[in-house]
Amino acid sequence: MLRKTFSTLVRKNSATLQSSLLLSSISKRCRFSSTSSDPILSSFDAILLGVYKDGSLTDTTAEVIPKDLQQTIKEKLRFSDAKGKLGETRLFYGLGGENFPKKIAVVNLGVDKNADEEEFEVLERARKAASIGVRSLREVGAKNIGVDVMIHEHGTAEGATLGLYRFDGLKSAKNQKSPVSIEPIGSLSTKELSWNTGLIYASAQNHARTLAETPANHMTPTVFVESAVSLLQDIPNVEIRVHDKEWVAEKGMGSFLSVAKGSDEPLKFLEIHYNGGEKESKPLALIGKGVTFDSGGISIKPSAKMAEMKADMSGGAVVVSALFGIAKLGFPINVIVSIPLCENMPSGRATKPGDVVKAMNGKSIEVDNTDAEGRLILADALYYTSSTYQPHSLIDVATLTGAMYVALGEIYSGVFTNSNKLWEQLSQAGRTANDPFWRMPLDDSYSRALKKSTVADLVNVGDRGGGACTAAIFLKEFVSGLTEDDMDESDEFEKPLNALDADDESKIRYAHIDMAGSMQTTQDSGYDVKGMTGRPTRSIIEFARIISESKLTEHL
Fold first, then answer.
1. CA-CA 20 to 30 A from 397: which of 37, 156, 290, 515?
2. In the annotation, is 375 catalytic?
3. Residue range 123-161, pLDDT digits in tens
């Protein structure tokens, strides 16, 4: 059962109730049905079929599509001058007679080379084809689509679910689109990654998309907490603890408090426990930045694109959504999620540049720039989580620096880590999910710029160069048990400074993921939907699957 422990009662006023109803409405519109049995094709108003370059159907649909119809489709494709490129789609109407769906979309999978590909390549072909195909059917009014599972059930379900996502719950009724449901046609003999796992991975990312896309007046710290409770309340082995300002002050989280001071919205510290593993086994810890709106504080941002700062809580959205996926899939591990939630606003109460605050671990911080607030709230969350629960691995996810967007753009999320093994597992997960990571240096040399203050232990910003690296090394200062002594200078050409040996069991494996660039996309095709991305939710779920299957927790 879900146990909810509240430091204070969450009071629902009309604004938060409206926002909760909005999230509920959007959530319903983003869920897709599935079935384990072969559906009756006549029950659909449209079907999506996968074909190879030569026009032959996949084995999964060849079993349920009549031979004469298969031949008709092949001829139609030949006369339509199809090139056979991945994602190329053709729409046909009325080919199957009265008892057959009126709309048929045929999407090309390219050359049949499944046996010669690695799984991540098969997954990606399935994702792309399914997402393009279902979107083409939605454009012609399809509401209930039967989807050929094609070459990989998981990838097909992911692509279709992600591709059909849209955020229109705040529009008037006449401008909202009807939801589209999908069900699988056929099945493959694989098992770890199936149609159902694909639905869960993609639905988790869609939930993160919705949280990040929701405007800040509808997504306050209080509403974020309410949405998390609603999302997780029926899932076994999940416990939610919501802490208030008094609890945060009692813990000595002065760094977190300093950011929230300028806003009238009450801060929240959201803590979620998933107990899927053995009681005594160390947990995986996930920490997400939860700034529900970032004006920059007294160091106020330019007005251009400030509206995008509604998504400065994307890290929090990712980790709560990933926890949803991990718990729904029942991975046999323990997970702790911590999300410090607040707004960063200018006011007469706001922290001023030059103020000195004290973090939970006792270090004093000179706030040189109030727009470098994410690292301030994460500092206390990192120390609290690492010192209290002593996880085997700790990963924070944050839209932390504009420097990361400059370095990597929209494609990669940057990873700073002290562990080669952790990097390998994250990299593998990102590759499988096609939500990739790029390793960046976590080097103590960057800390020199943070120790220039004459009045405090640290300053919250460094020099202009290497901004993302400086932010990462600032965060490392607050992970309990990690010090400059962690640096391993051996084999420098094989690994960056501070990388721990894979068998070093005495240290927390730490990774900071800066996804300031990948938080949104300008693309609107396939399973990319223009706007907030919800990345890297699926990669985090896949990482949890990797460590649960490797039984990593037994020797950490």
1. 156
2. yes
3. 999 999 999 999 999 999 999 999 999 999 999 999 999
